[in-house]
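Good day; I would like, with your permission, to put a structural problem before you. A protein sequence and the structure tokens that stand for its backbone fold form the material at issue. The record follows directly beneath this note:
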Amino acid sequence: MSDKSGNLTRFIKTSGIFLAGTALSKLVLFLLLPYYTATLPTGDFGYYDLSVAFVTVAASALFFDIWITTMRFLYLREDALYRRGVVRSGFTLFLYSIALYAVAAGILALSVSPRYLGWIALYGLFQSLSNLFAYAARGYGRNVDFAVSGILCSVVLLGVTVVLISVLHFDFSALYIAGIAGYVVQIVYLELRVGVLRGLGSAPPDRAQLREMARYTLPLLLNAVGFWLINSFNKFAVTELLTTSGNGIFAVAEKLAALISFAVICFTNAWQDLSFSQKNTDENKGAFYADACRTYLVFLAMCVVLLLPLIKLVFPYLIGDDYADASLIIPLAVTAAAISGYSLFLGNIFYALGDTKTLLYTTLAGSALNLALCWPLIHFLGLNGANLSMIVSFAFVVVLRNVLLKKRIGFRAHGGTSLIALGGIAAASVVYYRLSVGLNMVFFAVCLILFGAIALRALKRLYTKSG
């Protein structure tokens, strides 16, 4: 079997594992959305969503995304002693970062004292710890256990949420507690199955390895902040310009748009698995990365085109009346989620190349553009302005990364494919806004048949080449 067909087989197999895990996890969380909109006021849900956005970026920055670095270094070599050293170094850096995280939480408590700060801080801490366990498991090649742990986390989150709100009559603080419980179960499961901590011993970490991992991961602090400034700062702007209720409506649209993460997460995780294992001596890596990105772009556009009519169909049955205005911003919200996912997909190439500095520069450029655009666009266009600002900013990041990858490894962007993808998304958006639910389903059926024929033809061509 050729290297190319072997990579394809591995990519499809790994994508299938992540798709199964992601689909089941997201299905569980999706079932919570109508429950949220039926039981929580828009203002409470808006506050929860904004606080989670803040603590996620704070944790990602203060813990330097050490989980990504740990997984990246685990892929470099396969001997057990080296890998134990990598995990030991990763957890050492994580423990150092807890002090920074605690100081930041203390400063926030003394200066602002937001509601439920204790639960919010614990949510961010356990989310980060579960990330470290999960990415270490992936670095060891335990993708099935990684997927199962995500499903368990989601099931526990659902169960605890319902019990706390419906039985014990908690307010929205139940959402933080349920999230923490889910992350704890995920951590325990991964430790029992993978033994991330077992075998580390009491020996100190290798100082040279610790320094090398620190150099790799330090730029990720600012990269996390930059990504948040594009992906989540607009929630803060919406809250300031409109209200927390406005952000609650924005959050519901975002949660529905996150259905596109079925494609984003499973492909991105499989892509990390494959790209991180590629050796730096690969002479055809520019073509390898370009082919993968083109395939992903086509698949992502197909998912957006199929998702919009489905949301049109189910929205009235899933979402409470107080959140009905979210339907007006769905197309731009889904488009923003898709282009954000494609930007992340490109960003993983820089992770694989060990070039976190260039990744940082492109993210900061996009965040600067979003800061300049979001306030005036929200002022004139409301919630759709927030999505439009994200779309333009992530598109700018995509262009920058394409240009820099072309200079670095001869990466070739597929402009024609991009235009076709954007045209398909624009057509689906027009159908969503202008046509009835019935005609949206006709559009869905036609596109499903067309995309199925395209996929079968592509698989047949690949099978013929590999044979």
Summary: The mean pLDDT is 82. Residues 258 and 337 are 7 Å apart (CA to CA). Residues 3-39 form the longest helix (37 residues).
